[in-house]
Amino acid sequence: MLNLEQPVSRLKGVGAEVERKLGRLGIETVGDLIGHYPRRYDDFSKITPIRAMKPGLVTVKGKILTVGSRRSVRRKLTITEAIISDGTGTVKAVWFNQAYLKTSLPVGEEVLVSGRLEFKNSDLAIQGPVVEPAGGQTKDTGRIVPVYPETEGLSSRQLRGLVLPLMPFLDELPETLPSAVTAATGLIPRAAALKEIHFPTSLSRLERARRRIAFEELFLLILASLIIKREIKTETAPVIEFKAELARAFTGLLGFALTDAQRAAAWQILQDLAREQPMNRLLEGDVGSGKTVVATLAAVMAMGAGYQTALMVPTEILARQHAAKIEPLVAKLGYRTALILGKQPAAAKRQALEAAAGGQAGLIIGTHALLAAPLAFHRLGLVIIDEQHRFGVGQRQTLKQKAGRLPHLLSMTATPIPRSLALTVYGDLDISVIGSLPPGRRPVATKVVKPKERAGVYQEIDARIAEGRQAFVVCPLVEESDNPAAVGAKSVLAEAKRLEQTVFGHRRIGVIHGQLPSADKQAVMERFVVGQIDILVATSVIEVGIDVPNATIMLVEGADRFGLASLHQLRGRIGRGGHDSYCYLFYDSLAPEVAKRLAALERTSDGFRLAQIDLELRGPGQIYGLQQHGALDLQMADISDAKLLAQVRTCAQQFLRDEEVMLKYPHLLERVNKLKAVTSLD
Ligand code: ADP
Ligand code: MG
Question: Alpha-carbon distance 164 to 12, whole Å?
């Protein structure tokens, strides 16, 4: 019996060394190994007569006539060559630095040879092919061969060697989809699908296998969101009536009119609040689209009805900034605000906690600290979560406990998720979109900077600082790292020093990053806000929400190391005042895919468009936020496959018609519950 929980070290051929390497790929158990799907395949299934070969991937079946090795002193290589004949002709195979082949290749024997036929050094040869004896079962030749995500010292070939022996055992794996579903859809059994995924017997069967695995991934995700939706329906939240006068009083304080897009979103939210059924809504809007104002209006309405609102944000900087902006506004309507942070002076904290528990504070703003034990609410009616993807799991339940009943929930995100994706991942949420920016915004001029243009860019930046503007310099790291993935990446500390000692010695430079004590962060931010710092060297801690209208320049180091959405967020920190803004993207290396990503930023400032591009370039699993969140563990499913999505959705709905059905499938329930924890905020 195949035990998926068993550590890989129990497998033949896995010693301590291989075990460690597998660990680097996230493979610890046999189950992990089976779940380590190929990232692509080489089709070596067709045997071609040598005479008919064309450049590209080929498999030939023939006898090895000769094998020879020589040293190329000039190229510092050992070159091994073999001549293979199949009766229709002969072909050369070439290997570099694999001298052992000279003695190990079976001269005179019938073999299968799979590799790439190409011209190299004015010589047509199969380059570095794999050779296996013909006749028996093959692993690397004469079939569709899986190419796995690899790690240094652990090749696909070795991984195949570990996975292939498991294949016969996969037949024992139980079906995980309910029989009603497999029957209705004609999906192939899971065991067969997994076998096909690793060692396909044909491309069309591989496609069906993928569909089977993809179906299950989406099925679980959609089940989870449908179940959450159903559960929420059974709860009741306080009814918060819409008061037109209060809304007018609030908008009258703003000094600007809400855009139509804001108005529409606000209306959806306010209607939700007026119902007994708890709101569970996602407010999507690009950076600077004015989500906070809309959310504040909802908070005001809650306070007007005698309920408290908790506004949760991901960083202390942002909490303070929100408090500073919102407090004077709502104070004019007679409501009090309390600010609760992880670290704050004991007296201030005690006061804030008392105001929250006693009900004097109508709006409680804070970080994760809002979820911590000491905080009690008086009458919590609405919870607003800014940049929800930054939060982990377990929150809704905590808030419910604190409130005594489920409060209305509004999440806000500036990571615009394409609609198809949002429906799948956040199927339990209703979605409001603020699709346009307030009038008068000028797009940030964005430029990908070649290394040789660096000096010129520094000059441009200096000229603008001389005019009184301020700049962000964003680095991928806090300090130098010898982590292989980070080698060469610029760090905040080193870069600040370098700028100080070289081009910007005459400017005031500050640093900020997540590892600074909160009081220091606060102090640095305040100095930047009041203009005592010209250049703020930062990590992406500044990514979320920070609002300094005079900062009009952003220089990103190692832009290739950031995701598209992340860069868009960063760029959203500038372009907030009346001045022209400039974003310079420096890179450490520019792979074609990265070049596309950065070029997209030059071209467009529309976050939704960028999210779509990101989805196309990198696939849903990579989408910023989702990946961090772990919400989307889709390995096979292509979220843009609308047909499959629709089919899965229908199946899931049908399946759930029987209210008790989940109880009959405990293993399904367990997996759905895990997903529930991440698809919603609970
Ligand atoms: P978001 O949270 O969506 O990134 P904010 O709510 O912080 O955006 O708004 C960004 C800036 O735009 C704020 O300074 C805000 O006061 C301003 N703003 C919001 N709505 C409008 C509007 N309708 N007209 C003009 N300015 C607005
Ligand atoms: Mg915001």
Answer: 12
Contacts (Cβ under 8 Å, ≥6 apart) of 206 = 41, 144, 196, 197, 200
- Closest-approaching ligand to the CA atom of 263: 1
Q: Return the biggest CA–CA distance within the chain.
A: 94
Do 457 and 539 sit in the same domain of this protein? yes
Is 543 among the domain residues? Answer: yes
Judge contact between 338 and 358, C-beta under 8 A: no
Distances in Å between the Cα of 321 and the Cα atoms of 3, 309, 317, 368 are 53, 17, 6, 16
The single-letter code of the amino acid at 557 is E
Q: Apex CA 84: angle with CA 83 and CA 87, to 5°? A: 130
Task: Determine the structural domain holding residue 346 and report its residue range.
Answer: 244-434
Ligand 1 pocket (Cβ < 6 Å) reads: 256, 258-259, 262, 285, 287-293, 414, 438, 547
CA 386 – ligand 2 centroid, Å:
7
The predicted pLDDT at position 483 comes to 67
Verify that 421 and 490 share a domain, yes or no: no
Statement: residue 165 has pLDDT above 70? yes
Burial classification of residue 667, based on how many CB atoms lie within 10 Å of its CB (0-12 exposed, 13-18 middle, 19 or more buried): exposed
Cβ atoms < 10 Å from Cβ of 260? 11
Ligand 1 pocket, mutate which of 284, 292, 297 (most atoms under 8 A from CB) = 292
Contact of 518 with 454, CB cutoff 8 Å: no
Q: Residue 646's Cα: distance from chain center in Å?
A: 24
Q: Which of 60-69, 228-237, 428-437 has the highest mean pLDDT?
A: 60-69
Helix (H) or strand (E) holding 331: helix 316-331
168: burial class by Cβ within 10 Å (0-12, 13-18, 19+)?
exposed
Question: Could you tell me which residue, 252 or 613, shows the higher pLDDT?
Answer: 252
Collapsing DSSP to helix, strand or coil, 414 comes out as coil
Atom 5 of ligand 1: nearest residue by CA position: 290
| Claim to verify: residue 345 and residue 400 sit in the same structural domain | yes
- In whole angstroms, give the CA distance from residue 194 to residue 208: 11
| Lowest-confidence region among 172-176, 422-426, 462-466, 514-518 | 422-426
DSSP percent split of the chain into helix, strand, coil, nearest 5: 45, 20, 35
Q: Residues of 207-246 as b/e, b for ≥16 C-beta within 10 angstroms?
A: eebbbbbbbbbbbbbbbbbbbbbeebeeeebbebeeeeeb
493 and 396 assigned to the same domain: no
574 alpha carbon – ligand 1 mean position (Å) = 13
DSSP bridge partners of 19: none
Residues 61 and 23 both lie in one domain: no
* pLDDT confidence of residue 674: 73
Which own/partner pairs from 203-208 qualify as long-range (CB within 8 Å, at least 24 positions apart)? 203/43, 203/144, 206/41, 206/144
Last residue of a domain, one of 582, 604, 626: 604
Q: Are strands 361-366 and 336-340 parallel, antiparallel or unpaired?
A: parallel
Flag whether pLDDT at 369 surpasses 90: no
In this prediction the pTM is 0.74
In sequence order, what are the residues at sequence separation of 6 or more whose Cβ sits closer than 8 angstroms to the Cβ of residue 271? 242
Q: What does R_g of the chain's alpha carbons equal in angstroms?
A: 30
Which atom from ligand 1 is nearest to the alpha carbon of 287? 4
